[in-house]
Design goal:
Blueprint (H helix, E strand, L loop, with lengths): L4 H13 L10 H10 L5 E3 L8 H10 L7 E5 L4 H9 L4 E4 L4 H18 L5 E4 L2 E4 L4 E4 L6
Parallel strand pairs: 1-2, 2-3
Antiparallel strand pairs: 4-5, 5-6
């Protein structure tokens, strides 16, 4: 979610060239709506958004139950206080603009690895249809075993 269309176009183009599927929202409420309607592996989120700022969006995403979807804050707000607020609102990583695209993609890969690691059976306790991830402290009940 990013309100600057030229930044969105740059990121979308670069990520699509690397094989990622990308969709964008230019304000907080639209981003939340897209999130609930699509399967999402990672969220790149600006703080300065119309309608609802990125900190509010991030908090709302986590309250909606999207606990295991990595969130990368990508914003021009780069003070220590801004970074702490972003991470405390539920973001997993924080990158300040201007940024190098190579660093953005490296952070995306790192967040993706972290997400995949949290799903490995070594971090899980399973009893019948209940699974507890020991790292994230998240319990999930579903029919059948997770692979």
């Amino acid at each position: 979610m990013e309100d600057e269309q030229n930044v969105v176009a740059f990121i979308k183009k670069g990520l699509k060239e690397q094989g990622y599927s990308v969709f964008a929202a230019y304000d907080g409420p639209t981003g939340l709506e897209l999130l609930t309607q699509n399967e999402v592996d990672l969220i790149i989120l600006d703080i300065v958004l119309p309608g609802m700022n990125g900190l509010e969006v991030c908090t709302k995403i986590r309250k909606l139950g999207f606990i295991d979807v990595p969130i990368l804050m990508l914003t021009a707000l780069g003070t220590t206080d801004n970074i702490a607020k972003g991470l405390d609102s539920g973001a997993d990583d924080y990158l300040v603009k201007p940024f190098k695209f190579k660093e953005l993609t490296a952070r995306i890969r790192a967040l993706s690895r972290r997400k995949n690691l949290s799903l490995e059976t070594g971090n899980q306790l399973e009893i019948s249809d209940l699974m507890l991830n020991r790292n994230t402290k998240i319990a999930v009940r579903q029919a059948g075993k997770l692979s």
